[in-house]
Each structure stands twice: as structure tokens, then as C-alpha cells.
Amino acid sequence: MASDDRQGAGGKGQGARGIVLNIQHFSTHDGPGMRTTVFLKGCTLRCKWCSNPESIHPKSELGYNLNKCIGKDQCGFCLKECPESAIFNVDSDPKVRINWDLCTNCGKCVPVCPPQALYLFGKEMTVDEVLDEVEQDSSFYRESGGGMTLSGGECQLQADFAAALLAGAHQRGINTAIETAFNVPWPHVEKVLPHVDLVLHDHKLTLSERHRKWTGVDNQRILENMKRAYETWPEKTFVARTP
Amino acid sequence: MKRPSKRIGINLGGGYVAGINAVIAGTVLAGQELGWEVMGVRDGFDGLLFPERYPEGGLVQLTPQLLENLSGSARPILGNATRTDPFRIRQVNAENMVEELDCSSDLIAKVNVEKLDAVISVVGPQALSILFRLHRHGLKTVCVPTSVENDVAVTQLSFGFNSALSFAVDMLDRVRQAGQTARKIGVVEVLGEHAGWLALQAAVAVCADAVLIPEIRYDLQKVAANLRERLQTGRASGLVVVAEGARPRDGQQTGAGAATPDSLKASLSPGATGEGGSHVIESSGRTAQSVALRLQRLTDRATYPLALGPLVKGGAPTAVDRQLGLAYGAAAVRALHENQTGVMVAFQPPDLRFVPLADAINKVRTVPADSVFVQTARSLGIALGD
To answer: Are A2 and B97 inside 8 Å of each other by CB?
Structure first.
């Protein structure tokens, strides 16, 4: 069985690269003050209520907004560009359709789509590229007591990249926070948490069986990690949140 | 006892469709004639991929005795998978993390371990692509098309359609009677996201007042004018049939493709969907509701929406589907006997032919503008909204 590469693009330090879903400016619900939230791709849970399903897959993936497509009569470039013949038309509608079973998320259709109906969720970025964008909002952080928040997906899944981002933010004098579900191996937590000022962690469901039913896994590891993190870094601020 | 010369498997993708037992029976009987052993794979490919889930084994030997009198029955013989996608099997790994794995190589290895020479898959238009990919990965397969919407390309008639049509016609008759009693206009939605065969043929069969299909963009003002005219002559009620993918001419979608908060999620790849892998979220019923509401405003007559949805898939098969299912099953065996794989059995009257899967995927069999059913509807005075 072939497994997905779950560690993002890899590397350590300022040159590390990761898959970033989105950088959201002026967030007010991801920690104190006005913050810039960096959403990292990849998640280890499959919550039924997921609000960012485009963040689940660890790699870049194609998205398609049918409402933006202007149709094959006026455009149709994507039909010629797709190497897998995964884009097609039906006679009843000029708008294109995606055969998701054939699509390999190569993204070759994206640049040839003038109305941007086709796009990639997830972009490979370096630590400096992310931090340069985050730092543009630093005056707002000073005024409001904000900073940078890593979210996801599960931001600790790309542990090396997340740790480099957080350490880099500290070097630039930016407050750091993460939103995590803690469902990662402990070595990931050990890499990330030393560089975090505020840990916003989910407590999705208390009963393990219900947790399995609604998120795909039981919560044993989550509770273990949570307890261990509280004990290892008593000086840090932990805030438990329910979805 | 003579050893079977070949051992083949048969599995079902998609949900239950009337006539599915007939396909299995046709396969088993034709296989027996050739001295082959036919094994049923439980729940799509799950019986092969996860045999530990089945105390009685993931494969079940199918014999003519087991299938006696079942070709016309609605009792399921084999389980079916809502979606059979070995390329994306959701599992929890040793680190307690959920991930989707490509198990296609594993599946083909298990097919070899079970000494299956080939697998006959009964699948709908979506799953054809998965079988196409599996064939490219080395699986010897023959597909039998199933679609209650009759939208599988290159085949004139998928099994299951005729039973669905008969049920829809029966329901439309009842809706009309209920409408006459309540003096309302019934708006009935049937399956058909891209192709309006079910709506159109059912509407013709009951002489509905109007039918809206995806292939013809409708102007509801025209439909309402037609209805008003009929109601002014003393008619107590009206009957409108809509396919779930019917779209208005002005481009404001009212059905499955409507711009809703769900539309972004609906446009995502299967990694972002539920375990069923559905890309269209809660689309069923929207078109009927929208059309009914707007018709009520335009005609000043009470309307009531009804979505038949997947109800049309259930029940016992009609005689047509029993014949077709048996013929499809037997033809699939014949294809393997002729050493053809990576093909789909297609009904191209008067023949059953074998067409490459590559010719069947990425296509939808839609209603042509000059279809005899469109012409008949126009001749009968059934409004198409154009």
C-alpha cells in the first residue's frame, strides 16, 4: 500500500518548505488581538463537521468552482491541457466537469483557466516567504496584542516546517499561537511547542467511542499528548476549546 | 469432480438497482455452461481487500442453485459498496492518524491470491473510471453498466432504467390523482443530474403538463403560461416532472448545481468528502422545491413538491430489466471467454457489444434535441419550457 507523504515538503530551518493552504490576515478568532492565521495542509482527523475540508489532504489538490466556469464554447483550454483526460463535458452543459477518479492534482489546468474556476488548494512555500507576508501585519499586532497563529488541518503534522515558522516568527518579534487537535506522534509536539506562546487545542469529544465515530479515531493519543504537554511546559498558556 | 477451467469473480459497485440479481444469475449460468467457477465478492471490493471483516469469508461461491428464482427478486444476494474506490481507502495508521491509502496493488495481489482469472464489475457511470484505472494497473475486468438515469454512454439501455421508469410512472399517476383531489399542481423531481431520460419518458408516459430536463434550459414563465391556460379550461390540477439537474434559461441554477454555501465543498476532490465519496451535497429535492415555489407565484395555484430520489432504484425488476440483466451477465462471461478485458458490455440494438472502457468514461448519454421522445412530448402538448 502506498501512503501519502504526510510530512509536507520537508526540510528544517528557515529554508524549510511546507504546503500552505492559505494565509488569512486580520483574524480575530484565532487567539488574542488581530492575528495572521497560516493554514497548513494535512490533517489526521476526518471530523464530520470539518469547516476546512480543503485542508485535509496533505498535498496540493485541485479545486473547481463550477459557477465561475465560462464553458467550453468560450474557453475550453483545460480540456486540451489535462494529461489524464480528467476534464470533460456533457452535452447538456457547456461548463466543464472534473472526473475526480482520474484527476492526479497535477495542476496543469490551473494556469490556463482565465476565470480561475480551477485552482489549487495548497501552495509550497518557504519559511521566509510565509514570514515575510505575516510580518506585513506587524503594526496591527503591536496595537492589538496579536501575532501569528498556525492552523490547519493539523498544523503539527508538518512539524519541521511549523517549528521553523514559529521560531522564525519569534526571531522577528512576533507572538505565536497554534490551533491543534494534538492527534500527532509526541516527537511532533516536542518540535513545535517550544516555539509557541499560546496553545489553542481542541477537545472535540470526551467519550472515546463517540470521538471515533465523529472524527475517525479515538481520543487516547490526544488526551495523552494533552496531559504530557501540560506537564512538560507548565509555563505556557493552554486553552482548551470545543468545536 | 472436474476442476473448473476458469475462476472468475463478480462484484457490485453503487447501490441496489432492480435487475442486479438477474446480472448475477446470467453470469453464473453462462459461467456454468463453460465449466467456470463464479465467486461473488462481497461489498464491492471489500470482500477481497478486507476478508477479515467477513466471518463467512469475503468471497461467496455462486451456484445456479443459490440463484434459483432470484433473478426477479429484490432480495440482495451480494452486498454492494456505495463507492468502490481501491485508490482511496480510508484507514487509521499505526500512529492513530486517518489517511487515505492507494490499495490498488494490494487488491490486484489479492485477486491473484484468490486465483480469480478476471472480475466482472456491475457499476454505474462514475465507478467506470475506477475500473478503467484498475484495468490499467493490470486487473482483468469486464464491466456491466447500471444506471437508473440511463446516462451511461455508448449503451442504449442500462439495466435498472426500465424498472425505475415503471415505478416513476406509477408514482406520477398517484400524484396526479392526489393533485386532482387537493386541486394543486404536483411538481415531481426524479433522478437525472445530466440526462433527462427518466423525467422525459415518464412525463410522456403519463402525459404530464410539463417536463423540465437538463438538456433544455427552461423558462418558467412559459411553463406557467401553459399551465394557466390549461387550468382556465376547468382542469383541477397540474402535473410537472422535473429532472434534478434541470436548469432555468437565465442561468440561475435551482438544482444540484445551485450556488449555495455547500457549492465549494461540492466542488472539492473526494478527499474532502464523506466516506461515501459523494461530490454533490444534499441536492435531492432542491429542484422540485424551487420550481414548485416559483410556479406557485406565477400561476396563483397551490403547488406541492415531491422528490422521488433514490426510491426509484428499489423494488423488483420489470420483465425488460430481467431480460436485460440476464443478457448483460451472460455477455460479460462471453467477453471473458473471447479473452476481452477492459471492456464494457453495451446494448447497441440489436446487439450486445463490447466497447473499451476508455470509450465509455467521461461521457454522459444525454437526450438529443431531436430525440423521438422530445418530438413526442411536443406533439402531445407537454411543455418543455423552451
So the answer is: no
Dump pLDDT digits (tens) for A188-223.
999 999 999 999 999 999 999 999 999 999 999 999
Q: Go through the domains of chain A in sequence order and give each one's CATH number.
A: 15-58+123-241 (3.20.20.70), 61-120 (3.30.70.20)
Residue with cell 440479481: B21
CATH superfamily of B164-314+368-379: Phosphofructokinase domain (3.40.50.460)
For chains A and B, CB pairs below 8 A equal 124
Q: What is the pLDDT of residue A14?
A: 60
Angstrom distance (rounded) from CA B220 to CA B249: 9
**What is the value of ipTM here, to two decimals?**
0.83
pLDDT at position B249 is: 85
Contact check, Cβ <8 Å, A99/B129 = yes
Q: Report, as an integer, the average pLDDT of A136-160.
A: 94
- Closest by alpha carbon to B383, among B165, B227, B251? B227
Phi, psi of B153 (to 5 degrees): -65, 160
Q: Which of A45, A61, A88 sits opposite B271 (nearest CB)?
A: A61
Q: Domain ranges in chain B?
A: 6-159+317-349, 164-314+368-379
CA–CA min distance A102, chain B (Å):
7
Say what the pLDDT of residue B255 is. 45
Fold topology of B6-159+317-349: Rossmann fold (3.40.50)
Q: Is the peptide bond before B57 cis (omega within 30 degrees of 0)?
A: no
pLDDT at B180: 87
Distance, CA of B25 to CA of B322 (rounded, Å)? 10
